[in-house]
Design brief:
10 strands; Rossmann fold; alpha/beta; single chain; 31% helix; six-stranded mixed sheet
Length: 204
């Protein structure tokens, strides 16, 4: 069985993102250790851009999940659309009757489901995780650590074909739970004047 691509990848910055040695070390440690990279910093310091630049440099598709105060961890896995299924069951057409029979037609795959079932390794950005409620990070990290989750509606175990390269960003709006020591952590800050189009300092 061929080795997973992320085992041989290495990030060395890019023409548009000048990364410090510490920041490159943190990214490459996350790749080697197969751990999420937690990137902390004030808004506008390039945390989201880091994920975009790493994904582009390593030729990996990037999936993005932007967190809001109302976001639930379950949405990253999947959601069951019971309302549409009920509506289809009331249409009394041959197509709707056939569609209702298969509950998979009403499963909305979240970004983790998409990342786990992708045919090649992908980068996954979970942006501004500190905006969610306090239980959100613990629930999410459990699934990322196991690289699998169970879909009760379809009675199937969704297991990762390839481990995604996970970026988690935080604006430091609130303290994160104790589960985050399982991540490789790094802090970025904007330096002025910037020596290139985009530049960051880091404290990893």
């Amino acid at each position: 069985m061929p080795p997973v691509r992320t085992q041989t990848m290495k990030f060395q910055g890019s023409e548009t993102y000048v990364a410090t040695p510490d920041l490159m070390l943190a990214v490459n440690a996350a790749i080697t250790l197969k751990r999420p990279l937690l990137v902390k910093g004030e808004p506008g310091t390039g945390k989201t851009m880091l994920a975009e630049e790493v994904a582009q440099a390593l030729d990996m598709p990037l999936l993005q999940w932007h967190i809001k105060s109302t976001t639930k961890a379950q949405q990253g896995l999947y959601e069951y659309d019971a309302v549409n299924r009920l509506r289809d069951s009331q249409l009394n057409t041959a197509d709707s009757a056939e569609r209702v029979q298969d509950i998979r037609n009403y499963i909305v795959q979240g970004v983790l489901w998409q990342a786990f079932t992708a045919d090649r390794p992908v980068a996954l950005l979970i942006d501004e995780i500190d905006k969610a409620d306090i239980e959100f990070p613990n629930d999410l990290l459990r699934e990322i650590d196991r690289m699998e989750f169970y879909c009760y509606e379809t009675r199937e175990l969704i297991k990762a074909k390839h481990r995604p390269l996970v970026f988690i960003t935080s604006n430091n709006e609130k303290e994160l739970p104790d589960a985050f020591p399982t991540c490789v952590a790094c802090r970025v800050s904007k330096r002025s004047p910037p020596p290139a189009n985009s530049s960051t300092g880091s404290n990893c």
